[in-house]
Design a protein that fits this description.
Structural class: alpha+beta
Distance between the termini: 122 Å
Strand content: 25-35%
Helix content: 25-40%
Radius of gyration: 43 Å
Order of helices and strands: HEEEEEEEEEEEEEEEH
CATH architecture of the largest domain: Sandwich
Number of strands: 15
Number of domains: 2
Bound molecules: calcium ion
Amino acid sequence: MNTPKYFLFALFLSAFLTACGGSSGSSTPQEDTNTEEDTTTEEDTTTEEDTTAEEDTTTEEDTTTEEDTTTEEDTTAEEQDPIADIPGLVAHYAFEDNLMDETGTFAEGQVTGENPGTEGGSVTYAAGAAEGSTAVAFDGTSGVELAQGLIGPGAYSISIWLHPDAISQFTTAFYGAATANSWVSLVPAGPGDAQHTMLWAGDDQGTGWFDGTFGEQIPTGAWSHLVMTYSEAGELNTYLNGQLAVAHEGFPNVFSVENASFHLAINPFPDAPYTGLIDELRIYNTVLTAEQVATLNGQ
Ligand SMILES: [Ca+2]
């Protein structure tokens, strides 16, 4: 009876060892290989893909950012000075501690006494109409002779900022004359009971005096922006602080000559010279549009 038990035991043992040896000897290497291969493949692929993606994205973002920034800066710089884009500028007196024409076309203004051609006056400079800029200051006994021919035949526009300290009738801020009797005079207080501010004109062609009024008198102690546009058809538009004040017709053609004379603050008559500040005188050989006037006003 021992033989069957031993035989069965030996058979069981042999089968157990065979089963254990076969399973452990064949399955372990397969599991290791699979794990290594999968891990390696996944890690490599992931790393390469991620790195490539990040590098590409970074490069594209940097390039795009630089291009956009440059374009925006250029555009902003142009938008910051729209006045410079207005065509037809003939002369520009900025009065930045000097009497120069910023366009370089005309000679520097010359200080005079209280009438054209006289000596002994003086000017100083003070805070201008625009922040950080300066204006020329007149003391009531002085003027400035500007270059001849600032305005010639044809259309023209005048843009100027005035800050009078006092106002007296017929006093001029800007005076231009083709002859003794043919002239324009920007007077803060013009003729008539109302003494409105106007581009007053005298004409020796028989037209007589013309009141190119702004419809009101500008104040003392504050800046006012005045623009006058003249077309060859005799249309004169006056703009006060960027807005159309009055549209006139029949304004005389004063500047039919090339060598008209121009002064700030004084005229040849016994009127009191201008007292106060003048800034940013610009002369154009075009009829400025309402939009351009608004731009000059800073709107
Ligand atoms: Ca200025």
